[in-house]
Amino acid sequence: MRIVAGLHRGRRLAAPDGQATRPTGERMRQALFDMLWHAPYAGREAIEGQAVLDAFAGTGALGLEALSRGAAGVSFIEQDRAALAALHANIAALKAEPACTVLAADATRPPRARAPCRLVFLDPPYAKDLVPRALAALAGAGWIAPGALVCAEVGRAEVLEAPGFAVLAEREHGAARVVVMRAG
């Protein structure tokens, strides 16, 4: 697994052994970032210079891709120990420590944010209805700025209800579906 584009293009990312962590693949990340880059509701300014949150971060692939493409900084929320080890290794390999904050926490019970983020990625385990719970908790803890873009990866057949968030686009990729929303 590699960073797809930007400053760190082609750099490998570590992933923990086993099936507990399901990193967002290169094709899915490329499709998502292309969608954001060219969408009338987003554009380059949706990524470049923005504070980003990568919740259920796993290896950090989404947040590190955003950083490679010009995000100002990324906060990662992850609770699995093996995933946290891979995340720290990936940040160190990119020498991105100054732009990254890693929080060993549950995204459905996050700590208070220091500042809200304009771009939010959620990639939880599928079929556990975690996206709505995380959105409510993250918004309540000050992580999601008004008008922020939220990109959630869910199982293809999963029903996603997110009160207070307007769906802007959806794309299916294999067993996954990416839903892009705007915070109200």
From TrEMBL:
Its EC number is 2.1.1.171. Keywords: Methyltransferase, Transferase. One of its GO terms (molecular function) is 16S rRNA (guanine(966)-N(2))-methyltransferase activity. The keyword Nucleus does not apply. It comes from the Bacteria. NCBIfam families: 16S rRNA (guanine(966)-N(2))-methyltransferase RsmD (TIGR00095). This is 16S rRNA (Guanine(966)-N(2))-methyltransferase RsmD. It comes from Roseomonas haemaphysalidis. The lineage of its organism: Bacteria, Pseudomonadati, Pseudomonadota, Alphaproteobacteria, Acetobacterales.
